[in-house]
Specification:
By secondary structure, this protein is of the alpha/beta class. The protein has 16 helices and eleven strands. The N and C termini lie far apart (48 Å). Strands 1, 2, 4, 5, 6, 7, 8, 9 and 10 form a nine-stranded mixed beta sheet that branches. A two-stranded antiparallel ribbon has the order 3-11.
C-alpha cells in the first residue's frame, strides 16, 4: 500500500532538497519486508539511492537497517546478508537473537533469598494479608524482565559497522542518523545521534531501540535504562522533519491483518489457532496502526512544506503476517514478495508518483518497473565486490569536495 502526502507549501528554491528515510520496527519479519521494499524503491526512483540520503531515522528493527544505510551499506548488501546468500558479507541467523537471557535469569534467581525473607517478614507482621493477592507482590521481583538476550544484536551490528571504512560512531557519519528508544524511568523518547546523545555507540543505540519489553531486557546506557522506541510512536518520522527534511520516505511493516476475503472468515479463526503469539501480534499491530494514522494526520498540518511517501503491506497480505521468518526458504520468499508487491504498487501509482517526486528533482524508472525480475535477480545486479569499493570511493570524494570547498 502506497500513500503519498504532497507538500502544501512550496519548497525554498535555490538549494538541493533534503531527503530522509524513516523505518519502523517489526522484528525479523518486518526487517525482511523492509529490505524487499527498499530494494524496489532504490531501483525505481531515479536521482537517489537509499544508502546515500541526508537523514535516517530508525526504530526497533528498523534502526538496524538505517544504521547500516547511514554507513552506506546498500540494500542489496543487506539483502544478501538477511537471505543468507553465498555472496553475503556476513552470515545471518535469526535464532541468534532468540537465545535465553541466562544472565537475567541468574540475576533474578540470586534475589530469591531476599524475596523469601521479605515475604516471611511481611506474613509475620501482617498475617491477614497472606490470603490476599498483595502477598504475591514479592514474587514479581523473581520474574525476568526479558526472555531473550539482546546483546547478540549489539555484537552483530558492531561487527558489521567496524568493517572497511564504516563507523560505529554517530559523529563520524556523513549522514545524520537518529535511533529512537524510550527511557524506561520517564517514558520519554530519546533520539540517539542528536547533539548531546551522540557519544553512544550506534550498535548500543540499536540494541536499546529494539528492546521490546517482555522479550528483551531494558538496555543500560550511561546509567539509564531504555526500551523499544515503538512504544511512543511507530515511525518517528518527525525526527527527520525536525531536521529539515523536504521529503521523507517511510516504511512501516506493522499493519494488522484483515481477512477481508469472505472464505477466510470462519469460527475456527486462523488467529486463534495461531495461539497467544499471533493474537498478541495482531493486537500490537492494531494499536500501532491507529497511532500511525493519527501521526500521519499531524504531519500534514505540522510540516506543510514537506512531502511524505509511506510504504506499507496490504492489510490482507497473509504471506506478510503468517510467514515463518526462521525458515531460510521463507525468508527468501518474503523478501521477494515484498519486492514484487512494492514494485507493483509503484507502477500502479506511476503517474501520481511522478508528479509527487518532480518538486524534488526525482523521477520514476517505469521501464525497470515494467521489466519482470525477482529479488534474487535484483541482488545480482550489484556485484558484491563493487559495493564496498564504490561506497569507499564515494565517501572519499565527498570529503575531498568538502576540503576544496573550504575558504
Amino acid at each position: 500500500m502506497l500513500k503519498l502526502t504532497p507538500a502544501t507549501s512550496p519548497r525554498p528554491s535555490g538549494r538541493r532538497p533534503v531527503i530522509g528515510l524513516a523505518i519502523a520496527g517489526g522484528g525479523p519479519l518486518g526487517a525482511i519486508y523492509e529490505l524487499g521494499a527498499l530494494q524496489a524503491i532504490d531501483e525505481a526512483i531515479d536521482g537517489i539511492h537509499m544508502h546515500n540520503l541526508d537523514i535516517y531515522v530508525g526504530v526497533s528493527s528498523g534502526s538496524f537497517i538505517t544504521a547500516s544505510l547511514a554507513n552506506q551499506v546498500t540494500p542489496a548488501q543487506m539483502g544478501r546478508i538477511f537471505t543468507n546468500s553465498p555472496l553475503a558479507e556476513f552470515g545471518f541467523r535469526p535464532e541468534l537473537f532468540l537465545r535465553p537471557a541466562l544472565k537475567e535469569y541468574l540475576r533474578r534467581a540470586s534475589s530469591l533469598p531476599s524475596v523469601v525473607f521479605d515475604m516471611l517478614n511481611e506474613v509475620i507482621r501482617h498475617p491477614s494479608r497472606l490470603t490476599h493477592l498483595e502477598s504475591l507482590e514479592g514474587i514479581s521481583r523473581l520474574i525476568p524482565v526479558g526472555i531473550f538476550d539482546n546483546h547478540a544484536i549489539e555484537r552483530f551490528l558492531s561487527k558489521v559497522l567496524t568493517r572497511d571504512s564504516r563507523t560505529n560512531d554517530f559523529r563520524k557519519l556523513s549522514a545524520r542518523l537518529r535511533i529512537v528508544a524510550v527511557e524506561l524511568d520517564s517514558g520519554h523518547a530519546v533520539r540517539f545521534g542528536e547533539p548531546g546523545a551522540d557519544d553512544v555507540p550506534i550498535s548500543s543505540a540499536v540494541q536499546a531501540s529494539a528492546a521490546l519489553p517482555g522479550l528483551y531486557p531494558p538496555v543500560e546506557i550511561n546509567g539509564r535504562y531504555y526500551v523499544d522506541g515503538a512504544l511512543r510512536r511507530t515511525l518517528h518520522a518527525s525526527a527527520a522533519l525536525d531536521e529539515g527534511a523536504d521529503l521523507v520516505i517511510a516504511i512501516n511493516p506493522l499493519v494488522p491483518y484483515d481477512a477481508d476475503v469472505p472464505q477466510a472468515r470462519s469460527q475456527d479463526s486462523r488467529m486463534v489457532r495461531g495461539g497467544l503469539p499471533v493474537v498478541l501480534s495482531q493486537t500490537f499491530r492494531a494499536l500501532i496502526q491507529s497511532r500511525m494514522q493519527v501521526g500521519m494526520a499531524k504531519y500534514e498540518t505540522t510540516y506543510p512544506a514537506a512531502g511524505l511517501m509511506l510504504v506499507e503491506p496490504n492489510r490482507n497480505d497473509e504471506k506478510m503476517f503468517f510467514t515463518n521468518v526462521f525458515s531460510y526458504g521463507s525468508r527468501n520468499e518474503l523478501a521477494d514478495h515484498a519486492y514484487q508487491t512494492t514494485r507493483s504498487e509503484l507502477l500502479a501509482r506511476a503517474s501520481d508518483l511522478e508528479a509527487f517526486l518532480e518538486p524534488y528533482d526525482l523521477g520514476l524508472n517505469r521501464k525497470l518497473l515494467e521489466t519482470p525480475r525477482s529479488f534474487a535477480q535484483a541482488l545480482h545486479q550489484e556485484l558484491p565486490f563493487l559495493a564496498p569499493v564504490g561506497n569507499t570511493l564515494a565517501r572519499g570524494l565527498e570529503r575531498l569536495e568538502g576540503l576544496l570547498g573550504r575558504p
